[in-house]
């Protein structure tokens, strides 16, 4: 089927459309319904009647945006009317929810004039925390936004104007920096003089471009003072009329440093590009076809052409989704009365700064492993980069506070954590450990220090104050990666080919000589096997923790630290634990990586270590030993093993957490099953530590939860070691490495 047919089927599939309303409070009992509606609802109504601000406390207003349109200027479709524009407005709601967790009511108004439109929208102020105007034709859109901003005390934002302005403004800040030019000196030519072009030109002036350096063209040519005096221009684009000779776009582009296209496809030739100043900046943003194609523009010049379009299949996509969800998020959370110029500039600068940072591997993968690094082909972040939420929303909220339009103060450190919680429970849980690590960073040795991911992870650990990383590897290789990636990082390197390692060889020999290891073999191992060198560094106290496994199979990566560091005095076994977050629940699964067929003593030991790990995440453990049997319903050696482990822990006075088993998985995690059928259980709620009967079950169980249950997994985290050692999975991303480093630091803090 064609794309059009696929889209029709996508929208038509039951239930039709793309959005729905869901409840956020229980509605299961008569009591629930009496709280949700009559008679209980009267209490919050009375409170709001006494103080209108209480609406933000008792209702969804603070997270609800109205996407409002008359369908008079739908992108690529024109004036199709209010009803036909509804799929677009629903789609806008999807983006608000997907990227910033903002709820939306789409409102399509069949309004005949500006007065009717403004009156209708302003009357809806009690419903919404903000208004996003969409697809309204010029020049009416200017008047509508101006009047609504004056009449309403919630943020009003016309995305078609300001979204493109802010995103391309961020791109401009970085493009000018890369091209070695000054913002107040560049000459800018606009193709297009409608709402988006006019708002973008105004915003560029707000960023520092001199108004006299902007030339704007419409379909009839350059906007000149002569045309303005003749009444050929509207009151909004008239401000960009210049006292220059009449001419077309070709003349306007001669010598220009920047071209901004917000008009129509195919109107710029390679000759026009060649007429521009050296190292030109070209933002050809007409959709779906830009004013000049990406390849054509690049091929027109021998110098550096920084090119951006509105398309996702080329570098530097100017996509409004980088702006409006996060701008509204910050504005709503600060309860701003408007979205002002300071907030828009803050958004642009935050986007520009983010593009200069190291790009997460997950983002690179999402864009087919494109090389994403600050430079001519990467001047703005990608929409799927979750950091945009944290950086832009926080910057906007702070700007609202600083400019005096916020009705609520925000602690930015706490706010950042609140935003992380909106992305997923795993980030919220990891923040607990990251904060602990930052309070007292420790030395973490990274055995695979030559690997680019390890080097980037080390740079992040240091910049975020999580750890002091020590990289085992070739000093020249590591420094070359730092330079190539443009990392602001001075690495600490342990180079096996250059540094003095005799002390480590002696120690390894003393530890393993009764296992048949000669002194010469020990010296060879610390020179050639970074896992042995890193393990001895930890054992000797020259590092506080160790990470490895990125380029090794799990068993081969685990063997050296087990031989050198060993397990705790009170432990005979190590185990691998995954933390899984499913919706708002957190579950620790053990053992999923180490012990193939543990007996009852091993299971009990694994449970103790995993409970300790849960506490490091500020989770009070409730431990369930899993089986295919419920509390003796099947009796054989396999079911007795978890039953005996549970009994041993219950009988141990040193164990301070609830534990029970054996039980089936649904019994362990479904509160109703546990309470209704097994009220005698020691668990006072659903289990959050699941101990699997063997390695096969553990590995299968956590992967099913991760893949079919859409659970987010953190780990594996190695427990039971005498000193902190974690073996990451092959192919893990930089963020995974940093997170496990934080866990290792917290482990070391407790040593």
From TrEMBL:
<dbReference type="GO" id="GO:0006108">
    <property type="term" value="P:malate metabolic process"/>
</dbReference>
<dbReference type="InterPro" id="IPR042112">
    <property type="entry name" value="P_AcTrfase_dom2"/>
</dbReference>
<keyword id="KW-0511">Multifunctional enzyme</keyword>
<dbReference type="InterPro" id="IPR046346">
    <property type="entry name" value="Aminoacid_DH-like_N_sf"/>
</dbReference>
<feature type="compositionally biased region" description="Basic and acidic residues">
    <location>
        <begin position="8"/>
        <end position="17"/>
    </location>
</feature>
<protein>
    <submittedName>
        <fullName>Malate dehydrogenase (Oxaloacetate-decarboxylating)(NADP+)</fullName>
    </submittedName>
</protein>
<dbReference type="InterPro" id="IPR012188">
    <property type="entry name" value="ME_PTA"/>
</dbReference>
<feature type="region of interest" description="Disordered">
    <location>
        <begin position="1"/>
        <end position="26"/>
    </location>
</feature>
<dbReference type="InterPro" id="IPR037062">
    <property type="entry name" value="Malic_N_dom_sf"/>
</dbReference>
<comment type="similarity">
    <text>In the C-terminal section; belongs to the phosphate acetyltransferase and butyryltransferase family.</text>
</comment>
<dbReference type="GO" id="GO:0046872">
    <property type="term" value="F:metal ion binding"/>
</dbReference>
<dbReference type="Pfam" id="PF01515">
    <property type="entry name" value="PTA_PTB"/>
</dbReference>
<dbReference type="InterPro" id="IPR045213">
    <property type="entry name" value="Malic_NAD-bd_bact_type"/>
</dbReference>
<comment type="similarity">
    <text>In the N-terminal section; belongs to the malic enzymes family.</text>
</comment>
<dbReference type="GO" id="GO:0016746">
    <property type="term" value="F:acyltransferase activity"/>
</dbReference>
<feature type="domain" description="Malic enzyme NAD-binding">
    <location>
        <begin position="161"/>
        <end position="401"/>
    </location>
</feature>
<dbReference type="Pfam" id="PF03949">
    <property type="entry name" value="Malic_M"/>
</dbReference>
<dbReference type="GO" id="GO:0051287">
    <property type="term" value="F:NAD binding"/>
</dbReference>
<keyword id="KW-0560">Oxidoreductase</keyword>
<dbReference type="InterPro" id="IPR042113">
    <property type="entry name" value="P_AcTrfase_dom1"/>
</dbReference>
<dbReference type="InterPro" id="IPR012302">
    <property type="entry name" value="Malic_NAD-bd"/>
</dbReference>
<dbReference type="InterPro" id="IPR002505">
    <property type="entry name" value="PTA_PTB"/>
</dbReference>
<dbReference type="InterPro" id="IPR012301">
    <property type="entry name" value="Malic_N_dom"/>
</dbReference>
<feature type="domain" description="Malic enzyme N-terminal">
    <location>
        <begin position="16"/>
        <end position="149"/>
    </location>
</feature>
<dbReference type="GO" id="GO:0004470">
    <property type="term" value="F:malic enzyme activity"/>
</dbReference>
<dbReference type="InterPro" id="IPR051674">
    <property type="entry name" value="Malate_Decarboxylase"/>
</dbReference>
<dbReference type="GO" id="GO:0016616">
    <property type="term" value="F:oxidoreductase activity, acting on the CH-OH group of donors, NAD or NADP as acceptor"/>
</dbReference>
<dbReference type="Pfam" id="PF00390">
    <property type="entry name" value="malic"/>
</dbReference>
<keyword id="KW-0479">Metal-binding</keyword>
<dbReference type="InterPro" id="IPR036291">
    <property type="entry name" value="NAD(P)-bd_dom_sf"/>
</dbReference>
């Amino acid at each position: 089927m064609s794309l059009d047919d696929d889209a029709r089927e996508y929208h038509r599939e039951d239930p039709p459309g793309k959005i729905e309303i869901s409840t956020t409070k229980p509605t299961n009992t008569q009591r629930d319904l009496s709280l949700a509606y009559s008679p209980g609802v009267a209490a919050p109504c009375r409170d709001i009647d006494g103080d209108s601000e209480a609406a933000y406390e008792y209702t969804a207003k603070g997270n609800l945006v109205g996407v409002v349109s008359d369908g008079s200027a739908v992108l690529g479709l024109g004036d199709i009317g209010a009803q036909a524009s509804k799929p677009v407005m629903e789609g806008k709601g999807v983006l608000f929810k997907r990227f910033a967790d903002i709820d939306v009511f789409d409102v399509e108004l069949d309004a005949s004039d500006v007065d009717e439109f403004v009156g209708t929208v302003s009357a809806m102020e009690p419903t919404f925390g903000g208004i996003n105007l969409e697809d309204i034709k010029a020049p009416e859109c200017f008047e509508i936004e101006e009047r609504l901003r004056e009449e309403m005390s919630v943020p009003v934002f016309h995305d078609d104007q300001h979204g493109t302005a802010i995103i391309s403004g961020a791109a401009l800040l970085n493009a000018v920096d890369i091209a070695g030019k000054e913002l107040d000196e560049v000459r800018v030519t606009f193709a297009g003089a409608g709402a988006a072009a006019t708002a973008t030109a105004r915003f560029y002036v707000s960023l520092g471009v001199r108004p006299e350096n902007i030339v704007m063209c419409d379909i009839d040519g350059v906007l000149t003072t002569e045309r303005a005096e003749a009444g050929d221009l509207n009151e909004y684009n008239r401000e960009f009329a210049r006292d220059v000779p009449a001419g077309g776009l070709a003349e306007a582009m001669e010598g220009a440093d920047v071209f901004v296209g917000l008009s129509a496809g195919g109107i710029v030739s390679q000759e026009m590009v060649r007429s521009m100043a050296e190292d030109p900046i070209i933002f050809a943003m007409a959709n779906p076809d830009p004013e000049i194609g990406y390849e054509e523009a690049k091929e027109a010049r021998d110098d550096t052409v920084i090119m951006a379009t509105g398309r996702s299949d080329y570098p530097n996509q100017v996509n409004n989704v980088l702006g409006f969800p996060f701008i509204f998020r910050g504005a709503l959370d600060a309860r701003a009365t408007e979205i002002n110029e300071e907030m828009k500039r803050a958004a642009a600068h935050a986007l520009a700064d983010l593009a200069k940072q190291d790009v997460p591997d997950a983002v690179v993968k999402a864009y087919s492993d494109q090389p994403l690094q600050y430079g001519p082909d990467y001047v703005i972040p990608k929409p799927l980069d979750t950091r945009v939420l944290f950086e832009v929303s926080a910057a906007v909220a702070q700007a609202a506070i600083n400019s005096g339009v916020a009705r609520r103060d925000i602690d930015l450190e706490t706010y950042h954590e609140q935003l992380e919680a909106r992305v997923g429970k795993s980030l919220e849980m990891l923040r607990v450990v990251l904060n602990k690590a930052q309070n007292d960073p420790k030395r973490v040795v990274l055995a695979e220090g030559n690997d680019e991911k390890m080097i980037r992870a080390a740079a992040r650990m240091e910049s975020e104050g999580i750890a002091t990383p020590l990289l085992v590897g070739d000093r020249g290789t590591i420094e070359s990666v730092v330079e190539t990636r443009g990392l602001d990082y001075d690495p600490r390197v342990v180079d096996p080919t250059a540094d003095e390692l005799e002390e480590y060889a002696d120690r390894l020999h003393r530890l393993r000589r009764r296992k048949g290891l000669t002194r010469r073999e020990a010296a060879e191992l610390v020179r050639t096997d970074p896992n042995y060198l890193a393990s001895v560094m930890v054992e000797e106290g020259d590092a506080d923790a160790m990470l490895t496994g990125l380029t090794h199979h799990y068993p081969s990566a685990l063997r050296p630290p087990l031989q050198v560091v060993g397990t705790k005095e009170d432990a005979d076994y190590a185990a691998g634990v995954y933390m899984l977050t499913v919706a708002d629940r957190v579950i620790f699964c053990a053992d999923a990586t180490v012990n193939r067929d543990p007996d009852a003593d091993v299971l009990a030991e694994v449970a103790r270590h995993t409970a300790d790990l849960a506490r490091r995440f500020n989770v009070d453990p409730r431990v369930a030993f899993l089986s295919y049997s419920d509390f003796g319903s099947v009796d054989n050696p396999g079911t007795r093993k978890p039953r005996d482990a549970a009994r041993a822990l219950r009988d141990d006075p040193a164990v301070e957490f609830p534990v029970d088993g054996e039980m089936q998985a649904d019994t362990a995690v479904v509160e109703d099953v546990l309470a209704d059928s097994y009220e005698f259980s020691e668990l006072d709620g659903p289990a959050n530590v699941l101990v699997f009967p063997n390695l096969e079950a553990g590995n299968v169980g956590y992967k099913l939860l991760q893949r079919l249950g859409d659970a987010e997994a953190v780990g594996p985290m190695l427990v039971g070691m005498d000193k902190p050692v974690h073996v990451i999975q092959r192919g893990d991303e930089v963020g995974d490495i940093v997170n496990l480093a934080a866990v290792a630091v917290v482990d070391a803090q407790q040593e």
